[in-house]
């Protein structure tokens, strides 16, 4: 069977029509509006610079402060009997979309920075192309591959053996030019690929014989990455994302910035459910949202970054979450999957495990 490596991948990632849309929007004066990360009424947080088209098309806008917090080993203080379902865990949605176009960007900082800041749940979207996995956000290639993800995560775990990284792994965009199944390619990374097999042999948690599908305790997974399986396979690689022991809020399409109110209502409700729900259930709260393929909404500034950080007249999901966690200082948050997380939000989520 042919074994074609990631270096041979072709990034057929931007359709001609989409390129035209990007060029038109890049020239639009709408991209010059100032985008403060918080409500105008706040006086304690700095305002953001204006966004120019060159900044937008470059991807990350560089005005997050996630790199100012440092929590590489915060799980060391948790007992081995702790189960992730009982914890408050900061995570990132579309973890690798830190160098995407403004339509696709969801993060300001790279994977290594996220992990050092305390992020412990990842969202890795793999496109199966030419018998290898590239990393995508929808149709957009993120100039990354699965081998790079494995290296970064295992480097982090080597330096911080007290930690566990949960990695939601999903199949993204269309599969093309493959000679084998998605599962066969994953097995190749685990058992055959010389760039990843030794790393995964040491750092990938493997379900034991008779595995019941539940999320394992920290004592069984310290220094390891646990796959949260969000792809079709005959084998079992880890707990099933969306399984019976998960309760997920993921309402991610909004038509306008005014609809941030509705999104926030869903987020707040899920926080309340997590604080009061059964300990054996993993509550997942998706703070991310987008306008999808609604180009009118895109032209009006309904982007992941404006939804997360805010825009003039609209308080974003991230500052709302900062305020909520400060005002409601105890109780489990569950897994919080975020676009453009702030240092304050990550620190507040981690602190819930020790209050």
UniProtKB/TrEMBL annotation:
Signal peptide location: 1-39
Enzyme class: lyase
A Pfam family assignment: PI-PLC-X
Keywords recorded for this protein, A-Z: Signal
GO biological process: lipid metabolic process
Organism placement in taxonomy: Bacteria, Bacillati, Actinomycetota, Actinomycetes, Mycobacteriales
Domain of life assignment: Bacteria
Entry EC number(s): 4.6.1.13
Gene3D superfamilies registered for this protein in UniProt: Phosphatidylinositol (PI) phosphodiesterase
Designated name of the protein: 1-phosphatidylinositol phosphodiesterase
Cited InterPro entries: PI-PLC_domain (IPR051057), PLC-like_Pdiesterase_TIM-brl (IPR017946), PLipase_C_PInositol-sp_X_dom (IPR000909)
Reaction(s) this enzyme catalyzes, per UniProt: a 1,2-diacyl-sn-glycero-3-phospho-(1D-myo-inositol) = 1D-myo-inositol 1,2-cyclic phosphate + a 1,2-diacyl-sn-glycerol
GO function terms (MF aspect): phosphatidylinositol diacylglycerol-lyase activity; phosphoric diester hydrolase activity
Phosphatidylinositol-specific phospholipase C X domain boundaries: 79-230
Presence of the UniProt keyword Nucleotide-binding in the record: no
């Amino acid at each position: 069977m042919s074994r074609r490596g990631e270096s041979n991948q072709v990034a057929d990632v931007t359709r001609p029509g989409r390129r035209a849309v990007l060029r038109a929007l890049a020239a639009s004066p709408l991209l010059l509006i100032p985008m403060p990360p918080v409500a105008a009424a706040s006086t304690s947080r700095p305002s953001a610079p204006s966004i120019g088209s060159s900044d937008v098309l470059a991807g990350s806008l560089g005005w997050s402060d996630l790199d100012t917090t440092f929590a590489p080993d915060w799980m060391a203080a948790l007992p081995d009997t702790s189960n992730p379902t009982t914890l408050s865990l900061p995570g990132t949605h579309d973890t690798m979309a830190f160098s995407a176009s403004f339509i696709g960007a969801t993060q300001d900082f790279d994977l290594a920075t996220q992990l050092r800041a305390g992020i412990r749940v990842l969202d890795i979207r793999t496109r199966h192309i030419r018998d290898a996995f590239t990393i995508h956000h929808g149709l957009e290639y993120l100039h990354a591959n699965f081998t790079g993800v494995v290296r970064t995560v295992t480097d982090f775990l080597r330096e911080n053996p007290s930690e566990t990284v949960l990695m939601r792994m999903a199949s993204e965009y269309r599969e093309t030019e493959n000679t084998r199944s998605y599962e066969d390619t994953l097995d190749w990374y685990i058992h055959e690929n010389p760039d990843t097999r030794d790393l995964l042999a040491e750092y990938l948690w493997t379900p034991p014989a008779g595995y019941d599908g539940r999320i394992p305790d920290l004592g069984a997974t310290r220094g390891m990455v646990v796959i949260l399986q969000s792809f079709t396979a005959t084998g079992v690689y880890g707990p099933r994302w969306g399984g019976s022991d998960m309760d997920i809020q993921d309402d991610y399409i909004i038509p306008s910035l005014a609809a941030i109110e509705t999104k926030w209502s869903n987020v707040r409700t899920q926080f309340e459910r997590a604080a009061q729900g059964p300990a054996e259930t993993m509550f997942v709260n998706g703070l991310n949202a987008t306008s999808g393929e609604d180009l009118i909404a895109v032209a009006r500034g309904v982007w992941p970054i404006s939804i997360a950080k805010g825009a003039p007249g609209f308080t974003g999901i991230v500052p709302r979450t900062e305020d909520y966690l400060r005002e409601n200082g105890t109780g489990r948050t569950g897994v919080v999957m975020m676009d453009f997380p702030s240092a304050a939000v990550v620190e507040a989520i981690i602190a819930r495990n020790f209050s």
